[in-house]
C-alpha cells in the first residue's frame, strides 16, 4: 500500500494583465505569495495588508502543455498499467484554463491537453508490454445540475439519465452502474470517443466565458492487464479519472439569471460539498465523511482519501479582478494537499484462467498418478491384507500412494468377505452362530463366558455337534484333532479345510458324488454343476460381478466418446497442418519472387496485399492447429486415464471371480479347467 498525500500543482493562465503587485510566484521554491488590501471593496479606510503564502508540489507558471503533461500525466501512466488507480483533476475559477489543461485547445496540435496525451502514451505503454495483455476501455460522464449523463451512450443522454447510478461493490470500489464502457484497440479509437463525448458535452452560454463548461466532466480509462507469459489468473484492474471540474466562481460575479443561475447554484453546491469532504477527510477526529452528499464526491470517493494516486491541478487566472478567486483556489488547493490516500495494486482473479488452471492441475495430477503408480499384483496385496488382518504382521509400513492404499483396502475387503463366508460355512457345519469363528468380524463378539464354555466343549468333544441322519447342509461333528491351530486356519476353509473324520467320509461316500468330492458335497451348500470356467464367468458377471461389469461398460463408453472426439480433432489438426504447409510454400514462392526483383531493380519490396493475406491466414491456421492440438492432447490424457480404469476394473473382476469360482465349484486343484485363464472381454467379443 502506498500512503501519500494528494499532489497539488498550480497552473497559471498566461495573461497580459498579471497582478504583479499582489501575486508573487517563486517557481524555484514552488510557492506563491498573495497580498490584498483589507476591505478594499467596502471603501473602509484601512491600509492594512493581508498576505498569504502557499507552497505546493509544483508551480507551473506560463508552462507549455507538454511541461504540464510531463509533470502531471506521464508518471501516472505506468502505475495505472501496474494496477494503481489514478485521478488527475482540474479545479479553478471559470476561464482559468481547466478545459485547456485537460482537453487542450483545438487550434494547434501542440495545445492538446492531458487527456489526448495520456491516450497516446497509454497505448504506447500497452504496445511496449509484450509480456502483458492489456485491455483499455473508456467511459465519459458528465454531472450537470446533480444529474449524471453518459456522454458516450448511443441513446440521447436525457432519456437515460435515470438509468445510471453510483454503486459501491463489496470491496468498497465505486462503480457507475449502467455507464457504457467502450473497448479501444488503439489511440485513434480512444480519441474518437473523446471527441464524440466532447461534442455531446453540455455547454451553456455564460457572461464570463462563452464556452465555459457548467458541468463536471469525468473521462475515465479502465485498464485491465494480465501476463501473457505466466499462466496466472491474476488480473490487474485500475481506472484513471481525468476530471474537468466546473468553474468555482461566486454566483454573484457571474451575473447569471434563469437557468444559468440555477446551474451556478448547483455547481457551487457540489464544489462546497467537495470542500466539506476534503475537510472531513483531513480531520482525524471525524469518523464520517459526507461523500454521498453529491454525485461528484460520491463518484470521486476513491480519489479523495481512498485507494488512488491523485493529483490536482489548481488553475488560476492571475489578474487583479480575479484576486478573490485566486486566493480561494489557493486555499482549497492547500487543504487538498493534506488529504492522505492509500493506493494499492488492484488485483482481480480471472475466472476463465482460474478454471483452466484447475483443469490443468487435475489433468497433471491424473497424469502423475498414472505415471508413477505401477499396480501391484492383486494376489500379492491379498496376501499382505490377509497377513495384516490375521495379525501375522502388525503394521504395513510402506504405503507408497493413495492408489496403492485403495487397492490394498479393496483386497482387505475381499479377505474380509472370504473370512466371513468361510466362518459362516464353518459355523453352519458346526451349528454355531455365524461369526463365531471370526471374533470381531461380522457378527458382534460372543459373551466371554459362552465362548469359554464352547472352547472347553471343543477341546473335549471336537468341533460341531452330533447329527442324526444329517443330510444337505448338516456339517456333523469334527474330531478333536481337527481343531485348527491358527485362527486363520479356523476361518479360511478354502485352502485349509480340516480333514473330515473317517466316519463321516464313509458316510458321505455312501451318498455318492457327481463332483468326485463326496465329503465336501455333504458338508457345504450344494455346488453348481460346472459347465466351463468361461461360462461360469459369464454367469458371475450377470450376478455378483454385475456392478464391476457395469463400471467397465461405462468406462468403455466414455473411452469410445473420447476416441471419437480425438479422431475428429486429429482430422482438424491434419487439415490445418496441410493448410499451413501450403501457405508456407506460397510464402516461400513470394520470397523467391521478391529476392529476384531485389536482384533486378535493387529495390526491396514491401509486403503486398497477397503476402499480407497469406501471413494473416497462416496466423489463423496456426492458431487453429494449436487450439485443436491442445484439446487433442488433453483428450489423450483423459483416454489414457480411462483405459487405466478399465484395466484395473478388469483385474478386480477376474480376481473376484476366481475367489467366487473357487468357492462355488470344485475342479480338482491344478486341473485344466481350474488353471484356465479367463478372458474378461469374452462376452463383448461375442
Ligand atoms: N495556459 C493557457 N495557454 C493558452 N490559453 C489558455 C491557457 N489557459 C486557458 N487558456 C484559454 O483561456 C480560455 C478559457 O480556458 P478554459 O476554457 O480552459 O477555462 P476553464 O477553466 O475550463 O473554464 P470553465 O470553468 O468555464 O470550463 C480558452 O480560450 C483557453 O484557450
TrEMBL record:
Transmembrane segments: none annotated. InterPro entries: KIF6/9_C (IPR056524), Kinesin-like_fam (IPR027640), Kinesin_motor_CS (IPR019821), Kinesin_motor_dom (IPR001752), Kinesin_motor_dom_sf (IPR036961), P-loop_NTPase (IPR027417). Residues 478-497, 532-567, 673-686 have a biased composition (Basic and acidic residues). Keywords: ATP-binding, Coiled coil, Microtubule, Motor protein, Nucleotide-binding. Gene3D superfamilies: Kinesin motor domain (3.40.850.10). GO terms for molecular function: ATP binding; microtubule binding; microtubule motor activity. PROSITE patterns: KINESIN_MOTOR_1, KINESIN_MOTOR_2. GO terms for cellular component: microtubule. It comes from the Eukaryota. It holds the Pfam family KIF9. ATP binds at residues 92-99. Residues 5-339 form the Kinesin motor domain. GO terms for biological process: microtubule-based movement. Residues 518-531 have a biased composition (Basic residues). Residues 459-469, 498-512 have a biased composition (Acidic residues). Residues 424-567, 666-686 are annotated as: Disordered. Belongs to the TRAFAC class myosin-kinesin ATPase superfamily. Kinesin family. This is Kinesin-like protein. It comes from Euplotes crassus. The lineage of its organism: Eukaryota, Sar, Alveolata, Ciliophora, Intramacronucleata.
Amino acid at each position: 500500500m502506498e500512503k501519500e498525500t494528494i499532489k497539488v500543482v498550480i497552473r497559471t493562465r498566461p495573461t497580459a494583465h498579471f497582478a504583479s503587485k499582489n501575486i508573487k510566484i517563486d517557481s524555484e521554491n514552488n510557492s506563491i505569495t498573495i497580498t490584498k488590501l483589507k476591505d478594499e471593496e467596502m471603501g473602509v479606510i484601512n491600509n492594512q495588508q493581508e498576505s498569504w503564502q502557499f507552497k505546493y508540489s509544483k508551480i507551473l507558471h506560463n508552462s507549455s502543455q507538454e511541461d504540464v503533461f510531463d509533470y502531471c500525466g506521464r508518471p501516472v501512466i505506468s502505475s495505472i498499467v501496474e494496477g494503481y488507480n489514478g485521478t488527475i483533476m482540474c479545479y479553478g475559477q471559470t476561464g482559468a484554463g481547466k478545459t485547456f489543461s485537460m482537453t487542450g485547445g483545438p487550434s494547434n496540435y501542440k495545445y492538446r491537453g492531458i487527456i489526448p496525451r495520456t491516450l497516446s502514451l497509454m497505448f504506447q505503454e500497452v504496445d511496449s508490454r509484450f509480456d502483458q495483455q492489456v485491455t483499455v476501455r473508456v467511459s465519459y460522464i458528465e454531472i450537470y445540475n446533480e444529474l449524471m449523463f453518459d456522454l458516450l451512450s448511443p441513446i440521447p443522454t436525457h432519456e437515460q439519465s435515470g438509468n445510471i447510478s453510483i454503486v459501491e461493490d463489496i470491496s468498497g470500489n465505486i462503480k457507475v452502474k449502467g455507464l457504457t464502457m467502450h473497448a479501444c484497440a488503439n489511440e485513434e479509437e480512444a480519441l474518437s470517443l473523446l471527441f464524440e463525448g466532447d461534442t455531446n458535452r453540455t455547454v451553456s452560454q455564460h457572461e464570463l466565458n462563452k464556452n465555459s463548461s457548467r458541468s463536471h466532466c469525468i473521462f475515465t480509462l479502465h485498464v485491465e492487464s494480465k501476463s501473457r507469459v505466466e499462466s496466472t489468473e491474476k488480473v490487474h484492474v485500475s481506472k484513471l479519472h481525468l476530471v474537468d471540474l466546473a468553474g468555482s466562481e461566486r454566483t454573484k460575479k457571474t451575473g447569471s439569471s434563469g437557468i444559468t443561475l440555477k446551474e451556478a447554484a448547483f455547481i457551487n453546491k457540489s464544489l462546497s460539498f467537495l470542500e466539506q469532504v476534503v475537510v472531513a477527510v483531513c480531520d482525524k477526529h471525524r469518523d464520517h465523511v459526507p461523500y454521498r452528499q453529491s454525485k461528484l464526491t460520491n463518484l470521486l470517493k476513491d480519489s479523495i482519501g481512498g485507494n488512488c494516486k491523485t493529483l490536482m491541478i489548481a488553475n488560476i487566472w492571475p489578474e487583479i479582478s480575479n484576486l478573490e478567486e485566486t486566493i480561494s483556489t489557493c486555499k482549497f488547493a492547500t487543504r487538498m494537499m493534506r488529504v492522505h490516500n492509500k493506493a494499492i495494486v488492484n488485483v482481480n482473479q480471472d475466472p476463465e484462467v482460474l478454471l483452466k488452471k484447475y483443469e490443468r492441475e487435475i489433468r497433471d495430477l491424473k497424469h502423475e498418478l498414472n505415471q508413477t503408480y505401477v499396480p501391484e499384483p492383486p494376489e500379492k496385496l491379498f496376501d499382505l491384507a490377509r497377513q495384516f488382518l490375521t495379525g501375522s504382521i502388525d503394521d504395513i509400513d510402506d504405503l507408497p500412494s493413495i492408489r496403492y492404499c485403495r487397492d490394498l483396502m479393496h483386497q482387505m475387503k475381499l479377505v474380509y468377505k472370504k473370512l466371513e463366508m468361510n466362518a459362516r460355512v464353518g459355523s453352519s457345519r458346526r451349528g454355531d452362530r455365524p461369526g463365531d469363528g471370526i471374533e470381531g468380524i461380522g457378527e458382534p463378539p460372543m459373551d466371554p463366558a459362552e465362548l469359554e464354555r464352547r472352547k472347553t466343549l471343543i477341546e473335549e468333544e471336537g468341533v460341531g455337534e452330533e447329527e442324526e441322519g444329517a443330510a444337505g447342509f448338516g456339517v456333523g461333528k469334527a474330531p478333536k484333532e481337527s481343531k485348527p491351530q491358527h485362527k486363520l486356519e479356523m476361518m479360511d476353509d478354502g485352502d485349509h479345510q480340516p480333514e473330515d473324520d473317517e466316519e463321516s467320509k464313509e458316510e458321505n461316500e455312501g451318498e455318492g458324488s457327481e463332483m468326485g468330492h463326496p465329503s465336501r458335497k455333504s458338508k457345504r451348500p450344494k455346488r453348481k454343476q460346472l459347465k466351463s470356467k468361461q461360462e461360469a464367468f459369464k454367469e458371475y458377471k450377470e450376478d455378483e460381478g454385475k456392478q464391476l461389469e457395469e463400471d467397465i461398460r461405462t468406462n468403455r463408453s466414455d473411452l469410445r466418446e473420447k476416441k471419437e472426439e480425438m479422431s475428429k480433432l486429429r482430422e482438424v489438426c491434419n487439415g490445418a497442418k496441410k493448410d499451413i504447409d501450403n501457405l508456407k510454400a506460397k510464402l516461400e514462392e513470394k520470397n523467391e519472387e521478391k529476392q529476384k526483383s531485389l536482384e533486378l531493380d535493387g529495390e526491396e519490396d514491401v509486403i503486398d496485399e497477397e503476402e499480407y493475406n497469406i501471413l494473416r491466414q497462416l496466423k489463423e491456421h496456426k492458431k487453429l492447429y494449436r487450439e485443436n492440438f491442445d484439446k487433442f492432447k488433453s483428450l489423450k490424457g483423459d483416454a489414457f486415464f480411462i483405459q487405466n480404469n478399465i484395466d484395473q476394473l478388469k483385474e478386480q473382476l477376474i480376481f473376484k471371480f476366481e475367489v467366487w469360482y473357487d468357492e462355488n465349484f470344485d475342479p480338482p486343484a491344478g486341473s485344466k479347467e481350474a488353471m484356465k485363464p479367463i478372458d474378461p472381454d469374452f462376452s463383448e467379443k461375442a
